[in-house]
């Protein structure tokens, strides 16, 4: 599915004049609508893999001693998987655990498997100073604050994504851009997490990405998951779009990256691509992208924190996006 809505294209006949100018980008053109429509089929999202073969984590890094009562737990949860990071009271990240979900599954929720993960993972059994959940469900649109209308949020989401995946509608305010991030989460997932983390603050991953400092020039910020790719684009230092795509092979990724650049009339050879997540410089995926994007940078771990040595033994960009969430809470 595609998380995009167009500024200036009339949809009054569908949900009213007030939604005419709802947008993911104030300067988005009609060409972007064509791109969004073409992307719907290839960007189909699997809402949590229904047939996980096991519930073992992809990464399990923990310091030998953690003072949980003074620590904060950060969780990212969505169709891509469940990730946990623990920030100690000394501002040092002590633990990181990732459960990755497979691509190509049906659009069903593995409620039992999710319960197994939360029930068996000992880090969910601890008492923390604070807990935070960042949802990474892709059904999200950005709405200018002046046009925000809570009564129409569901209609807007249904217009863009359809109504086949009913869910709970939430919103976050993006103070840097005077926008609201309106998104939908699956109720059963919210209920399961609420049983283990009843006092957790909640926000969307896109909210954290958008509220970061955007440098001057043209930049594409990417997060690679095992079954998807999130892209945030800024042009001349201004936010353009944030969107998630599913993919099955490197060609899918290259298509989405090039398509986003084309929609905003940006030269792939001049845009700086910031890489986060599960991609290796020696991989075929990296080689396929490098054919078109010559300015690629691996993001580093946020400098405002320190990290257990077991975490820094891995490439920094693998987990940089997860630790960056802590800076936005």
Lay out the secondary structure:
Blueprint: H1 12-15, H2 30-42, E1 59-62, E2 72-78, E3 81-87, E4 92-100, H3 111-120, E5 130-135, E6 140-144, H4 153-161, E7 168-174, E8 179-185, H5 187-196, E9 201-204, H6 205-210, E10 219-224, E11 228-235, E12 238-246, H7 250-263, E13 272-277, H8 284-290, E14 295-298, E15 306-307, H9 309-312, H10 320-324
Parallel strand pairs: 2-5, 4-15, 5-9, 10-13, 13-14
Antiparallel strand pairs: 1-4, 2-3, 3-4, 6-8, 7-8, 10-11, 11-12
Helix pairs in contact: 2-7, 3-5, 7-8
Notes on the structure:
With 329 residues, the protein is of the alpha/beta class. It has a domain at 213-298: Nucleotidyltransferase, domain 5, CATH 3.30.420.260. Helix content is 25%, strand content 28%. It contains ten helices and 15 strands. The strands form three sheets. Strands 1, 2, 3, 4, 5, 9 and 15 form a seven-stranded mixed beta sheet that branches. The protein has a five-stranded mixed beta sheet with strand order 12-11-10-13-14. Helix 2 runs antiparallel to helix 7 (250-263), helix 3 (111-120) runs parallel beside helix 5 (187-196) and helix 7 runs parallel beside helix 8. The radius of gyration is 19 Å and the shape is globular. The chain starts with 11 loop residues before the first helix and ends in a 5-residue tail after the last helix.
> So, the CATH homologous superfamily of the domain at 213-298?
Protein of unknown function DUF3822, C-terminal domain
CATH class of the domain at 213-298: Alpha Beta
Return the structural class: alpha/beta
Radius of gyration: 19 Å
């Amino acid at each position: 599915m595609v998380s995009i809505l167009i500024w200036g294209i009339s949809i009054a006949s569908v949900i009213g004049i007030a939604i005419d100018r709802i947008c993911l980008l104030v300067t988005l053109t009609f060409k972007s609508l064509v791109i969004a429509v073409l992307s719907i089929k290839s960007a189909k999202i699997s809402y949590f893999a229904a047939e996980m073969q096991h519930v073992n984590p992809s990464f399990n890094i923990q310091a030998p001693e953690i003072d949980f009562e003074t620590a904060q737990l950060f969780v990212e949860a969505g169709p891509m998987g469940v990730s946990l990071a623990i920030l100690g009271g000394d501002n040092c990240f002590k633990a990181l655990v990732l459960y990755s979900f497979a691509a190509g599954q049906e659009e069903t929720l593995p409620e039992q498997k999710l319960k197994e993960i939360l029930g068996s993972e000992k880090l969910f059994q601890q008492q923390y100073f604070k807990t935070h959940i960042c949802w990474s469900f892709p059904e999200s649109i950005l709405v200018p604050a002046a046009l925000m209308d809570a009564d129409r949020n569901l209609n807007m989401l249904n217009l863009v994504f359809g109504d086949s995946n009913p869910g709970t509608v939430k919103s976050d305010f993006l103070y840097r851009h005077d926008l609201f991030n309106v998104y939908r989460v699956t109720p059963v997932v919210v209920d399961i997490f609420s049983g283990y983390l009843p006092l957790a603050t909640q926000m969307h991953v896109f909210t954290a990405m958008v509220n970061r400092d955007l440098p001057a020039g043209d930049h594409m910020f990417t997060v690679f998951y095992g079954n998807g790719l999130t892209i945030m684009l800024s042009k001349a230092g201004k936010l353009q779009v944030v969107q998630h795509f599913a993919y099955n092979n490197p060609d899918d990724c290259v298509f989405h990256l090039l398509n986003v650049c084309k929609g905003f009339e940006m030269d792939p050879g001049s845009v700086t691509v910031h890489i986060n997540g599960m991609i290796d410089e020696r991989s075929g995926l990296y080689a396929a992208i490098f054919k078109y994007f010559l300015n690629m940078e691996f993001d580093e771990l946020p400098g405002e924190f320190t990290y257990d040595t077991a975490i820094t033994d891995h490439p920094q960009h693998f987990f940089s996006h997860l630790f960056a969430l802590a800076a936005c809470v």
